[in-house]
């Protein structure tokens, strides 16, 4: 259920194409559908612009299948995060068009083709080991209809690799920086650009990085201005935030 679907129903009621009772039936599951183990939020895309995303960890295969089946009834695009191959295989049984992104462990079902934004997100990673989180951000941004590019393995251990790609930084409207170890890359990027930087600490690193806490603390203590930080390994959250910023940029350009 999205705003365009809702507008279409209201237009048909106004023109007399459908009766009020029939229109009410198509809206009966708003604002949510109670499945007993989950309350599927069909109203979210109307409120926030994006459908609910399924976080798969901690859910059984039957529960995930039930949630997906309910969302499919409303013809929404569906994004499932932290999904194993086993989860993907179960989803594919009821949604043959489901696509699995193995590195970030995400499933995407595209029911409605989204027009890509002109404004762009750039996802930057410190090292190849950070790519699962970086790719979670990329897949999420694409699923939300945002134009996205990537720049991987440009960490501060070889700063010339980043400095050799300044054109990509300049072209982006929002930058997501994904880094583990000490997480210094976010502060470096923040000092080079005049746009929002969303930092994602990762759990990549040796023992004393405390599962990503070292990079988290570095990022939230960044000396560069304009750097915001999400939680450890939360590529999804960074991309969601970045996409909302991109949509506001697009809106301002349309109205300006």
From TrEMBL:
GO biological process, one term: 'de novo' IMP biosynthetic process
SUPFAM superfamilies linked: N5-CAIR mutase (phosphoribosylaminoimidazole carboxylase, PurE)
GO molecular function: hydrolase activity
Residue ranges of every copy of the PurE domain listed in the record: 119-251
Entry-linked Gene3D superfamilies: 3.40.50.1970
NCBIfam families associated with the record: LarB
PANTHER family linked to this entry: PHOSPHORIBOSYLAMINOIMIDAZOLE CARBOXYLASE-RELATED, SLL1489 PROTEIN
Protein name (Swiss-Prot/TrEMBL): Nickel pincer cofactor biosynthesis protein LarB
Organism from which the protein derives: Halanaerobium polyolivorans
The gene coding this protein: larB
